[in-house]
Design goal:
Number of helices: 18
Strand order of the largest sheet: 2-1-14-13-12-11-10-9
Strand content: 15-25%
Largest sheet: 8 strands, antiparallel
Structural class: alpha+beta
Shape: globular
CATH superfamily of the largest domain: DD-peptidase/beta-lactamase superfamily
CATH architecture of the largest domain: 3-Layer(aba) Sandwich
Distance between the termini: 90 Å
Oligomer: single chain
CATH class of the largest domain: Alpha Beta
Length: 506
Amino acid sequence: MKKSVLLFITLLIASAGFAQQQPTFISNNLDAYIKQGIKQWNIPGLAIAIIKDGKVVMMKGYGVRDVKTHEPVDENTLFQIASNSKLFTGTALAQLEEEKKLSLDDKITKYFPQYTDYDPHTTALVTIKDMLGHHLGTKTFQGDFTFWNSALTREQIMDKMKLLKPVGEFRGYFGYCNSCFLTAGQVIPMVTGEQWETYIQKNMLNPLGMTNTHPLGAEMPKLKNASKPYTTAFTGKLTELPYDNVDNLAPAGSIVSCVKDMAKWLTMQLDSGKYEGKQIIPWRAIQRTRDINTAISSRKSPVRPSHFAGYGLGVFEGDYNGYEIYWHTGGADGFVTNTCFVPEKKLAITILTNNDNQSFFEALRYQILDAYLGVPFVNRSEQAWKNFNPGDQEQIKKTNDMLAHLKGNTPELPLKAYAGTYVNTLYGPINISVNKKDLLIKFEGHKNLTASLKYLDNGEWMLTYNDAAYGIFPLKFKIENGKVISTETKVNDGLEYDPYLFVKQE
């Protein structure tokens, strides 16, 4: 009995001492800060884990994973981590290089002789490392409307990359490229005989005990304790979205996980590839993922104590108040997430949320970094809020203006004149048909994506997607000599920035 009491007292003292080691903001204010933040930013649910000195000092869920059932978020609640999947892919390829099964400097054509890019010179030179560094010269998100949630296979996406016309120089321009990461990931089955998801499961998730993590996301609607995805974009109202299914882009962003499991992944990052004393990933492979592959910026941030940023093999890196930090964000429809680790301080953070139209998930990360890295307190949430349009007020005004012009006006031509098949070189065909007094677009490259067209006036229509994540936009048809020639469609900038031109077929 005395031994038990003594042990309890010892543990209590140790616990108190450990708590005192935490910055005041973390121990006294963080909980209230998060509760205020999710209320202000209209975030249904948030999960967070903080690892310091090899211990989990915080792991908690806030809010709800489903606004209808009010089921709470906890440390096991599942979120789509999206592009936080990329470091798993970069790590896998670095590990295979360490095992002498490939070189990151291998040409893509070594494994895929028929692979071509828009520029034949790029085709001849592009390597695995180039793909992991977003070096093609294409715009950020270029092609993603065609690829994201589409019915295309991984091989078909790779084939369509030859249609992505660069806007910058090969290896001289940083354009964030999801199809590039897919292409790099497709090398894994070529050298191992295992699909990307199988390799990740066997070599990372299983050894780390990440038993509640799923490399593919198609089954997320059926998974226990899965968060629902939401947005406030375009209307300002919290709207539930369909789950993304990007398993065809899996190496770029398909993983579904929770903070309890992500804490294990980050603990390994802080311990040179080890977890619970066992070497999971060779240290040299970990180092390889962190070598700067792409220089992004060397200018001082106006709002944070940082001066440079680069990109490794699926992870951003830079300085923060004199310390080297590594991070990545992930965005899927209805989810935004981040991971961050600071090896010099033995600190790591992961934050998972289920509203994609907010900046609190990043403001919170910086607030925690400030506390641990000695930066004087600045309310990062309030700082971000000043530059944020909740729901994008400009877009909401445009939407309301369009709704106000739905007065039963008659278009220039009979509805049947607009009906038919339209083709975009990259995307392929869409079909426009008459739907009572309106038009309906069926996007043939997607299994379930449609959009209604309601006539406004002055040749303008209101385009409304059946999936709210894609948005609401004005649309016009090009008409010559009483004949419809083409139209342009736009989607949410978070998916792809540029509109797509679709030409009407005879």
